[in-house]
Amino acid sequence: MVFGPGLSSPSEQLLVLDDADAQLQGVIVIHSTGLGPAAGGCRFWEYPSMDAASADALRLAVGMSYKNALADLPLGGGKAVLQRPSGPFDRKRFFAAFGRAVNSLGGRYVTAEDVGTLEADMQSVSAQTRHVAGLPRLAGRPGGDPSPWTARGVFLSMELAAMRRLHRPLNECTVAVQGLGNVGYALAQMLHKAGARLVVADLDSHHVSRTVATTGAKAVSSDEIMSVAADVFAPCALGGVFSDSTIGSLKAKVVCGAANNQLATSEDGLRLADHGVLYAPDYVVNAGGIINVAAEYLGWTSRDALARVEDTARRVARVLDFASSEGLSTDVAADGLAQGIIAGGARRLSMVA
Ligand code: NAI
């Protein structure tokens, strides 16, 4: 078992990758396999040290276990973190070497794209192993760009959260969307179609103008979007958006968006609750992407995968109900439920062994 710094949940395995010929340095972390193969993307980034890369992988792998468990997927959690070489390197060779490392785990870990990796990289991986997803989509099968699936799950979660906290449907709400990239743009289209009023911001003016043109949204600056008068705030850009100072200026009473790791610290969940905000936990509402990846790897049909995405609001309701019955903030409730599901999977596995 391997413990990451500051993490109470140990990982099952940490595999160090070091292939000088391919300039490959990195780690694969398998956090849990009780529910199925450990699934989680491959992050390719310049880290200050291998210790920093390992710490990130250990933290991200726990997150994947929780996300997969609460999405009711037959998958555990894992993550690969690869150090980006500082000079020129042969990308195909690099990812082929990574593919061999994935293959050496015999299916205990399944990889896919994450920050810094591309579909072409997963094709290099797939020449070495079948334990990979995020490959070019085959006709009539799940796979390909997961963003529309993610946006659909966020939309369904938002409908539920608005009804719970504001007792209103979305066509009576103003929604502030931060970040209008793949997910934010698709979400804005769905909200517009549902009759919601939109206020939007993005650092990229092209992303703002295409959204305004198609939805009639009001554009504001990226500095203003969190504090505008709105009923719902949808973070769809980067993580860590909430802190002591930003929570104080938030006017929305519901937070529901796609961005990963929205809470900078675990105290921020409590701060949001104390501020009267219903926070729909990020990794529960944005699971559409991993459902799409799981469907590709496990060979489900698009219809199966869509049915699971459509079930997102039920899973969010389960977390909100648990939070209110136990007097917990919603993020803590989500983690607690996920830990229970993972422990149940581990118990079943030990009984079979
Ligand atoms: P993206 O890169 O297509 O879009 C992000 C957008 O946010 C960009 O348009 C960027 O200009 C904008 N942005 C960055 N900083 C900003 C700021 N401070 N203020 C306003 N706008 C800002 O990314 P994508 O795929 O839409 O993902 C959005 C978030 O959702 C990310 O945090 C991602 O990790 C998360 N996510 C995405 C999934 C997917 O299926 N694409 C699945 C699960 C989570």
Keywords summarizing the entry:
353 residues, alpha/beta, 6-stranded mixed β-sheet, 6-stranded parallel β-sheet, binds 1,4-dihydronicotinamide adenine dinucleotide
Provide structural commentary.
This protein is of the alpha/beta class. The chain has helices at residues 50-70, 91-104, 119-126, 147-166, 182-194, 205-215, 244-249, 267-274, 282-285, 288-298, 302-310, 312-326, 330-352, and strands at residues 13-19, 24-32, 38-39, 42-45, 76-83, 109-110, 174-178, 197-201, 218-219, 232-235, 254-255, 278-279. Strand 8, helix 6 (205-215) and strand 9 (218-219) form a beta-alpha-beta unit. The longest helix is centred in the C-terminal third of the chain and has 23 residues, at 330-352. The structure holds 1,4-dihydronicotinamide adenine dinucleotide (NAI). 1,4-dihydronicotinamide adenine dinucleotide (NAI) binds at residues 146-147, 150, 178-184, 201-204, 207, 222, 236-239, 258-260, 286, 289.
Give the averaged pLDDT, no decimals: 94
Q: Which structural class matches the secondary elements?
A: alpha/beta
The total count of helices amounts to 13
Distance between the termini: 18 Å
Bound molecules: 1,4-dihydronicotinamide adenine dinucleotide
> Which bin fits the share of residues in helices?
40-55%
User: What is the strand tally?
Assistant: 12
- Flag low-confidence runs: none
Which band does the percent of strand residues land in? Answer: 5-15%
Rounded to an integer in angstroms, the radius of gyration calculated over CA atoms is: 20 Å
Run of helices and strands: EEEEHEHEHHEHEHEEHEHEHHHHH
The backbone outline, from C-alpha atoms, is globular
User: What kind of sheet is the major sheet?
Assistant: 6 strands, mixed
